[in-house]
Amino acid sequence: MANGRVLVTGASGFIAKHVVLQLLEKGYRVRGTVRSAQKGEKLRQTLASAGGDVSRLELVEADLTRDEGWDEAARDCDFVCHMASPLPIRQPSDKWALLPIAKGGTLRVVQAAAKAGARRLVLTSSVAAVVYGHGAGRVGPFAEDDWSNVNADDISPYAVSKTEAEAAAWDAADKAGLAMVAINPVIVAGPLLDDEPGASVKLVLMMMRGKIPVAPDVSFGVVDVRDVAAAHVAALTADGAPGRRFILSAGSMTLMEMGAAIADAVPDCGKKVPRFTMPNFAVRLAALFLRDLRSLVSDLGRRKEVDTAPARATLGFNPDNPEKAVASTALSLRSHGF
Predict the structure, then answer these.
(1) pTM for the whole structure
(2) Residue 155 C-alpha from the chain's centroid
(3) Is the pLDDT of residue 136 over 90?
(4) Backbone angles phi, psi at 265, to 5 degrees
(5) For a designed S-S bond to 325, which of 39, 157, 224, 279 qualifies (C-beta 3.0 to 4.6 A apart)?
(6) Euclidean distance between CA atoms 192 and 198, whole angstroms
(7) Exposed/middle/buried for 66, CB within 10 Å: 0-12, 13-18, 19+?
(8) What is the pLDDT of residues 152-170, one digit of tens each?
C-alpha cells in the first residue's frame, strides 16, 4: 500500500476521477479540489459507487482564477497532480482567450506545491502542446523535445493554452526547485464513472447522435482513460520521471475508423456515425467560414506519429488498442443513458 497524501486539482474531471480512484485503490490519501460543494458531494458518491475508499478522500473548494485557497489545499501534501484546465467544446475566436485561466491557474498550483514542500508535481498537459503549428510537411514522430508553435496561424486556442501553461509550469518549477513530470495524452476515451462526460468523450457522443454525418479526412491519437490514469499514478514515484514529458497514445484513428468502432459496439448507432469522408477541397472551403475547421486543414490526409517509448519504459505504459477505447466509450455512454 502506498503512503502519502496527493492533491488532485480539478478532481471532478473525466480523467481526474479515474486518477483519484486509482490513487485510493493503491492506498494514498487524496485531497481533491472542486469548484463547489455540490460537485464534491457528487464526486464522493461516484467514487464510492466505483469501489473507492472515500474515507481517505478529502475535498476542498478552490478556483483556478483566484489566489485564495491554494496554499491551504497543498499544505501537507507529498505529491500534487495538477489536472484542472479549461477545455471548451467550441473554441473561442481569440486564440489567446484560454491562456489567462490555464496559465494563471497552473502557476498558482506550482507555487502552492513548492511552498508546501511537495516531493513531486505531475502536470496533466496534452499532445496539443507538442504536435501543432509545425506545418503540413511534419508528420513525426513527435517526441518530448517537440513543442507546438503558438504563433502558427492554424493552431487552436486550446493548443495555445496547453503549450503556454506547460512551458510556464516548467519554468516556475525549475526556479522553485520542484521536481516535475508532464503527462501529454492524445484524445482520451474510455468508460465514464458517472453521467458527466468529459469534453473529449463528447466527440464520441456527437457521432452516436448523428451530429457528424460526414467526416474530414483527419486522424487523432486515442488512448484509454484508465491507461492515462495509471501513468499519472506511476509518475508520482517512478525513477527517472522528473524533468520528462511523457506522450501517451494507443494509436491513431481517422474519424471514419472511430465511427466504425462505435457502430460495432452499439449497432443501432450504425446509421448515425459518419459514413462518408468529406473531400479535402470541401473542408478547405468550409474552413474559410467555419472557425472550428481551420485548425484541421493542415492535418488533412496525414497521421501524426508520436513517440510513446519513454512512457512505456519509465511509467510502465502498456495501452490497449484505440478501437477498444472508443468502443468502451460508446458502451459506457449508452449505459449512462446517453
Answers:
(1) 0.93
(2) 18
(3) no
(4) -80, -40
(5) 224
(6) 8
(7) exposed
(8) 988 888 899 999 999 999 9
